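Table S5 (text form). Sequence records supplied for joint modeling of the two-component complex.
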Amino acid sequence: MSENKLKMSSSPHIRSKVTSANIMLYVTIALLPASAFGIWNFGMSALVTLICTTASAVLTEYIYEKLMHKKITVDDFSAVVTGLLLGLNMPASAPWWMGVIGGIFAILIVKQLFGGLGQNFMNPALGARCFLLISFTSQMTTFVYDGVTGPTPLAQLKSGEAVDSMSMLLGRIPGTIGETSVIAIIIGAIFLILMGVIDLRIPGTYIATFVVFIGIFGHFANPDVGFFDPQYITAHLCGGGLMLGAWFMATDYVTSPITKRGQIVYGMLLGILTGLFRLFGGSAEGVSYAIIISNLIVPLIERVTLPKPFGKGGEK
Amino acid sequence: MNNCTERIYNGLVKENPTFVLMLGMCPTLAVTTSAVNGVGMGLSTTVVLVLSNMLISMLRKIIPDSVRMPAFIVVVASFVTIVQFLLEGFVPSLYDSLGLYIPLIVVNCIILGRAESYASKNPVLPSIFDGIGMGLGFTVGLTAIGIVREFIGTGAVFGQQILPLADAAAGKGGYVPVTIFILPPGAFLVLAFLVALQNKVKNNAAKKGKKVPESAGCGEGCASCGNSACGGKVFPTGNEK
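The corresponding structure-token record, covering 557 residues in total, follows.
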């Protein structure tokens, strides 16, 4: 009988099969190319860092929810994504305990204390990265590549040196574990877009605004560079955490606007802030600060871009 | 005299200005980068608070109600100036590290708050003890925050290195200080955690206190009670909820 299939309840009657758990699983899968490349590029120390951050994030979530008698949400993969993203944002040469501290900070302070998944006001992985960056500045900004400690291409770019865009695209450069290979990140991003997890709105506006900003103001920061110098713009696009940030961290559902217009405003804000920090800031990189600052402004953006319900507003 | 000890208990525990009233947050967050700074700031404030409470309580019938705020400020500012000169003269290092926050004691809301809500309405002796209690409460709060921040941020307590620092250049392992704790974000983190801890302790104490409700009407515990009609139900164990 069909009666058993009819649910007697109020709307909604049709539910999507998409759950937090499978979205987070897709994101984890999408991060694998970048992780694999990072491990290949930086060796086993990268693997150790990734394991430490992920394990500590998951364990922290489990222990906290156990102690607080909450529902255990470890199986929804959100802590795995946070831990993995944090690891990808750390240099491979960072000691293992730094990853553990970062994972604990991300989950305990940035996520759980504000109410767990869906309640955090800031991207947990980036919050923890900035915590580590401020606390352990030297370890977090020392990049060892092929046994040599050297500046990242972005730092070279800032000091006016020439950089090789091709190796930046492939990822054979010093940097954090996950940010170096643009190709590996793009593979993950395409997977996410195909699976419908993210759309182009935020990353697209972010990158477009950033290109325009760098194109115009690159000349003011560095007089040798002309307006819209393609070489300079490519180097900025492929260097640093821009790609990782734009595709994987700016698009975090919890900390980005829901409204479509809001997402565009958010993307533009990210582009401008990143450009500002990179060109005129003290350090060469500014993606993580740009994203967490924009995270804080999201409630305001949503407030002004809230669409009018049908029938409301208009002429009286 | 009972009233006086009650005032001190009130300031230290019940209405602790840092952890319960959340007053004077500006110096609390700004100067507690080390335990010494916390103690210094707390004691300076205590001295000003006791003296201003005393004087304002003495003058409470003379000061007209409509100009009481300017009058209080003048009294407080005079004492702050005295404290400032004394600090500058005798402990210049502390004076340098507290800097701007010493003159800012004038507008510390604990001091004006106590003047307005207590000293201007009560006799001299309780007002003095109110000042001592509140001041000590503030000192304890600042010192606690200072100790935690200094310990995590530099591995030292009161300037004494407790944990040996790591030295990467010499290849020596040891404690790597978490610098963020002596920077502004650390102040917010430590304050929040200490307030949470304090609330936890208080809630536990309150739960224990509930075991013998005053309204039960049978004073003592069930053991000594002859009335078995209640079946021990008037003494909730606190585990029901």
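Note: Chain A has 14 helices and two strands.
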